[in-house]
Every structure is written in structure tokens, then in C-alpha cells.
Design brief:
This protein is α/β, with parallel strands linked by helices. It has six helices and seven strands, in the order H-H-H-H-E-E-H-E-E-H-E-E-E. Helix 5 links the parallel strand 2 and strand 3.
Length: 230
Amino acid sequence: MDGRLKTFLKSRFPALVPLLRRLKFIGTSPQERFAKIYRRNTWGDEDSSSGSGSNLAQTEAVRAVLSSLVRELNCRTILDIPCGDFFWMKLVDLDIDYIGGDIIDEMIRDNQHQYGNSRRRFLRLDLLQDELPKVDLIFCRDCLVHFSYEHIFPALANIKRSQNAYLLTTTFVHRDRNEDIPTGGWRPINLQVAPFNFPAALRLIDERCPEAEYRDKHLGLWRTADIPVL
């Protein structure tokens, strides 16, 4: 659809916006959607091709506590999925074996070339269906917020099926309801309310998001065994 026509329809018929968003993704796989976002830098952050949530300002609080949490949990291995462009994670002092997983082939190749070493490797992994490596902690930040329900549920089932010990993932703690979106969009989700209904988190890490409307953004820690069967 021509860009001017979409702009006109959005301005004159705002109720059509959700439909237009869904039409944009018809017939494309999650891999195709995220690869297109990456290649076009659709999220438009000046620092990170993974979007503003991966710039230094928005990851400051996470960077300050992630190393100590990993040590506290006695983790020796971590799977960071999706790892994105590794922009901020490269600054975290992790004295463990690190695996970065993502669905975008060229991103994985670039990361492996720039950052791979004997204790850090990057793998092309589809969170929805690929068998996940055996690790102590799955770190899944800013991922499920981009998935439709159709894709969140298989992702969580795959994480649970891995039988890895812990999941650390994004949740917005003050939201009392969730909504569905097409995969490739974005919205906040609270994993402790329907339709996910997670139990209370073992730990909540306040990301101290600088955007006022998202101040409730946290990382929640759960045992993967406690993820509800959805």
C-alpha cells in the first residue's frame, strides 16, 4: 500500500490503524519481519539497530545488576535470546560462558566476527521451535513484547521444554490487562496476569526506564519449571 494512502487512512479513519498493522505482516514469517526491521533500522535508534531499548541510557540499570545476579544464582552459562546486535551487553562483565541467540542470520555472523571468542559464541536460533542449548539462565529481554499471542505461547513452551533452570525476562508490573498484537509490533505485557498467569517472580529488577509511561518496566526472574503450561 502506498505510504501516502496509509497516512491518509490513519488520519481520517484512526479505527483502521490496528487493521493496517496486521495487513503489513500478512504472509511473512517472524524471521522475515525481524530481518526487515533490522536491515531498515526501523526502530530508528542512533546507537543500536536493536532499538532504543538497547541503548546505553535504557540499559544502565540492567548493566548495573546483571553480573551480581548471575553470580548470586551460581550461573556458569547464559543464553541471551534474542541477543540483538550485542551493543550494550558487550559492556557487562560476565565471567561465564555466554551464548547469544537470534533469528537474523547476518546479525549472528556480524556478532560472531566482532565479539566471538572461546567463552562467547553466537548461534542462529529460533526461539519458537529450535532446541535451546543447556544453560543455567535464559535471558530474554525485550522479546515477548514484540510477539503476538500466537508466537508468545510457543516461545514460552520451548523455554519450559528446555528444562534450563531460570528465565529472566521483561514484564511490566503495573499493567492489569494484556492485549494481542501482530508479531513485529510492540506493547507492554504483564506476565502475571491473563492470559499468561505467571506466579510471583523470584526477583524483580526495576529497569528504571527513562520514559514516564513505561516506568513499571522490570525484568522478572522465574524458574522455568514454574512457567504455567499454556
